[in-house]
Design goal:
By secondary structure, this protein is an alpha/beta fold. The protein is built from 14 helices and 11 strands. The chain has 2 domains: 7-223 and 330-395, NAD(P)-binding Rossmann-like Domain (Rossmann fold), CATH 3.40.50.720; 227-326, Dihydrodipicolinate Reductase, domain 2 (2-Layer Sandwich). Strand 1, helix 1 and strand 2 form a beta-alpha-beta unit. The chain starts with 6 loop residues before the first strand and ends with a helix.
């Protein structure tokens, strides 16, 4: 395994809540201002692993928003998403990070980007190449944190890299999304890729083949931070006790920009495809339904109400209800940093393709064999033990 150098971290959606929280959090922890609470990779199970340090991450990215990163951080502080005093103390550092972020036009789903899809792909690739060269980086991890995009039809054009590249120059509106193009650009530029959103990206056959042939790791999709995390913890409990779940229904209320985006039916449908998948696969014939409502006053505090109707011994009906209220960005940001560290470690070990060991971080894990959170964590710990043993042998 080669020596760990600085790692480029390129966020798609770099001025959003999650990216801003991740950047200021990494800076604060690296300076010793804050503890790493919420970061899985800071736990005792990961001690002794050659993980990239937060101080060795070089952040950059792209966003359609023009709000400077340091102003965004103060805005998040005023919204209680992070300590406002911390945002003010790190204003200079965040202003310096702002210089690494590209302001882009983007394009709405259904529209053709300026100059066509291939031209947009070229622009993204040029930005990634410039970020790498400007910072003298050997490795770059691209992380998709942009808002959920509508689902598009996965035609045969997405079966192979050759088919996809031939289709892009002549494709009409609705062929694909900006998320897909960014993932394609990342892999073509030799970057590792993480999809923290439910949008279609590196799981498509053409992109999987590029990753495999280029020996690049990728992971996704849709970060598991709150209600779905609880579902994948509680669902196996009912199965283990042989209790029959009849119905599991939930309502989600959120008020940040993601809530506004998910208020659009096409984006909501894309999100709900991921949220319900875990329970449907675990519980089989149970009635499973989740809805998402936009409540502007809630801001970043997502509230989930769940009702579980189940049968016990002799068919006795029972119910369980729970309310989850969590700050979305504060839950997601540390996991994003974990994913960068673990993906980089896998890359250093010359692992490529879909990283099955990262399943516990996602609602719909690529190449994950189970939605059971406990089994997923066991798989991650098994991988960690293997890495630790190999590292110990190399140090002798």
């Amino acid at each position: 395994m080669t020596t760990m150098n600085r790692i480029g971290v390129y966020f798609i959606g770099a001025r959003g809540n999650v990216a801003t929280t991740a950047i200021i959090g990494a800076t604060a922890i690296a300076q010793g201002r804050m503890p790493a609470t919420g970061m899985v990779s800071d736990g005792p199970e990961f001690k002794g692993l050659p993980l990239v340090g937060l101080q060795d991450m070089v952040f950059g990215g792209a966003d359609v928003s023009t709000i400077p990163l340091h102003e965004k951080a103060i805005e998040l502080g005023q919204a209680r998403i992070l300590p406002e005093q911390l945002a003010r103390e790190l204003r200079d550092e965040m202003a310096a990070q702002e210089k690494q972020i590209h302001t882009v036009k983007g394009f709405a789903f259904g529209a053709v980007p300026e100059g066509g899809y291939f031209a947009e792909l070229t622009r993204i690739e040029e930005r990634l190449s410039r970020f790498r060269s400007d910072n003298n980086l050997e490795r770059v991890v691209v992380v998709n944190l942009c808002s959920t995009e509508p689902h598009f039809a996965e035609t045969p054009d997405f079966d192979t890299p050759e088919d996809l590249m031939q289709a892009l120059p002549k494709a009409g509106g609705g062929f694909c999304t900006g998320t897909l193009l960014a993932a394609l650009a990342a892999l073509r530029q030799g970057c590792a890729y993480i999809n923290f959103t439910p949008s279609q990206a590196s799981e498509l056959p053409a992109l999987r083949k590029i990753a495999r042939e280029s020996r690049l790791p990728h992971a996704g999709k849709d970060g598991k931070t709150g209600e779905t995390l609880l579902k994948t913890v509680l669902g196996p409990m009912f199965l283990a006790r042989n209790l029959k779940v009849l119905s599991w229904v939930g309502n989600n209320f959120l008020g940040n920009n993601d809530g506004a985006v998910l208020d659009a039916p096409a984006s909501k449908d894309s999100k709900l495809r991921q949220k319900d998948a875990a329970l449907r696969e675990m519980l089989g014939g149970a009635f499973v339904k989740t809805d998402i409502q936009y409540v502007p006053s809630l801001g970043d505090w997502k509230t989930a109400w769940d009702l579980i109707h189940f049968q016990g011994f002799l068919g006795t009906p029972m119910t369980m209800t729970f309310t989850w209220q969590g700050c979305d960005s504060a839950l997601a940001a540390p996991l994003v940093l974990d994913l960068v560290r673990l993906t980089t470690l896998a890359w250093q070990r010359e692992e490529s393709g879909m990283l099955a060991q990262l399943a516990p971080f996602f609602k719909n894990p690529l190449d994950g064999h189970t939605h059971d959170f406990h089994q997923q964590m066991a798989g991650l710990y098994t991988w960690v033990d293997t890495v630790r043993a190999e590292t110990a042998r190399e140090r002798k």
